[in-house]
Amino acid sequence: QVQLVQSGAEVQKPGASVKVSCKASGYTFTHYGINWVRQAPGQGLEWMGWINPYNGKTNYAQKLQGRVTMTADTSATTAYMDLRSLRFDDTALYYCAKDGQQLDPNWFDSWGQGTLITVSS
Amino acid sequence: DIQMTQSPSSLSASVGDRVTITCRASQSISIYLNWYQQTPGKAPKVLIYAASSLQSGVPSRFSGSGSATDFTLTISSLQPEDFATYFCQQSYSTPFSFGQGTKLEIK
Q1: How many CA atoms lie within 13 A of B37 on its CB side?
Q2: By CA distance, what is B5's nearest residue in A?
Q3: How far apart are CA A23 and CA A67, in angstroms?
């Protein structure tokens, strides 16, 4: 079955960077995009961006442009999300989520377990 | 950017009730509307995609309808495991956006 397993929780200081990994299994990694979605404590869901692991094409939310980079290692079937210049309001649970159909980003049919990133001085 | 507005924000209901949650988009999104269920401490789970398609493995008591700007999620007969938070999401154009959520509680 499809599984997305994310890296563990981290605490970072303001201004630092964090890199979250998402190991995929149970499907052909290069056939479906991976999205990153975050959820601040007690809040709703925010889409951060998408990567096509086949060709590395990305699509980032405008508000994160310049601070976020999404990559994929096809040999390791792992996607990564790198967020720089961390701010207090980046504190959130970060999820990776697989596209439900091929080609363009769409709905999310499988999710990782989430990675809590806490930004604290 | 497309704004998604859900109503109500919270809802109390009993086991066996029929419940409807609505989602409105700030512009037409055709049928590019998806519904998710989230229980405390868990990742969201897709219920409905493309407005009315039931995700594999999801009970048939869940159904979705609508197009353009107005959409509904209906649970025909609430079960204990359905008490959760529900989110709509538009996949018409990036940046994708979610509704603020509807928390369904036991009456």
Answers
A1: 17
A2: A44
A3: 22
Residue of B nearest to A60 (CA): B95
What residues of A are in the B interface, CB distance below 8 Å? Answer: 35, 44-47, 50, 59, 61-63, 95, 97, 100, 105-109, 111-114
Is B44 in contact with A45 (Cβ distance < 8 A)? yes
In angstroms, the CA B29 to CA B6 distance is 15
Convert the pLDDT of each residue in B54-93 to its tens digit: 999 999 999 999 999 999 999 999 999 999 999 999 999 9
Instruction: Find chain A residues with C-beta within 8 A of B36's C-beta.
Output: 45, 108
pLDDT digits (tens, 9 = 90+) for A104-118: 888 999 999 999 999
